[in-house]
Specification:
single chain; elongated; mainly alpha
């Protein structure tokens, strides 16, 4: 396909529409769960402050490590239908037309490049997520223990998302810059964004892929957190069973 036809296709795509007392007080302050899940005060008081502190931090670290390990490998994104990053919306709308015009190879190349870039970037998350756990305050812990099934994930997102985006972006850009379709998309999407025809967050492939990778990372951490809270007995760690079993009454 000629460069002129490729340019036209992209243009068309874009035009389409410390502290024993503190810890025990904290746990007593947790909003009471359903009666069958309530933990007795005596059960919670049997835990030492060290066990509580270490248990919570272990849960956070394990969830983060598991998500990073799963995504930060070949096919971590691309090989999973639920996690694979699709073409940017402007190109999704015209994907069928692109394939009919003989641009299927270029579309497939970009999709693979985007997902490989995300897989390469995700390991950058481990150090920042671990650092967030180490710096967790009593106030942070209160929010996590009294929050919903993904409150730890929300804590991670607040503490790490901006920095992770900065770390992911160069890796993603280096990979997608090698793809001709990505370069042409960036050129025309950037122009369209100036006239508010598309969301500025989608004006560059690397920005789009970075955000998609982060969204999927936090979603996976959230799934692992919710599973641990729902069934601490299956956590595989005696400390986690003891701490979260006491909190959940199991």
């Amino acid at each position: 396909m000629s460069p002129q036809s490729l340019t036209l296709a992209v243009a068309l795509a874009l035009a389409l529409p410390a502290h024993a007392a503190d810890w025990r007080d904290l746990l007593r302050g947790v909003a009471a769960p359903p009666a069958e899940q309530q933990a007795s005060t005596s059960t919670i008081d049997a835990l030492s402050p060290t066990e509580i502190d270490a248990g919570l931090k272990e849960a956070l670290a394990r969830g983060a490590d598991a998500a990073v390990a799963q995504l930060g490998q070949k096919d971590g994104f691309f090989g999973n239908d639920k996690l694979r990053i699709p073409l940017p919306p402007g190109l999704q709308k015209a994907e069928q037309a692109m394939r009919l015009m003989g641009m299927g190879k270029q579309a497939d190349e970009l999709i693979l490049s985007m997902n490989r870039a995300a897989e390469a970037a995700v390991p950058e998350a481990r150090a920042l997520l671990v650092d967030a756990v180490k710096k967790m305050t009593l106030e942070d812990a209160r929010g996590i223990l009294t929050g919903g099934p993904t409150s730890a994930t929300e804590f991670f997102r607040r503490k790490t998302e901006a920095k992770l985006a900065e770390r992911f972006l160069p890796t993603v850009k280096a990979a997608t810059d090698k793809v001709g379709l990505a370069q042409r998309y960036n050129r025309y999407a950037g122009m369209a964004a100036q006239f508010n025809l598309i969301d500025r967050k989608q004006a560059r492939v690397e920005d789009y892929v970075t955000q998609q990778a982060l969204d999927r990372l936090y979603t996976l951490i959230g799934e692992k957190e919710a599973a641990l809270r729902a069934n601490p007995i299956q956590a595989g760690s005696e400390l986690l069973k003891k701490v979260f079993g006491a909190v959940s009454g199991r």
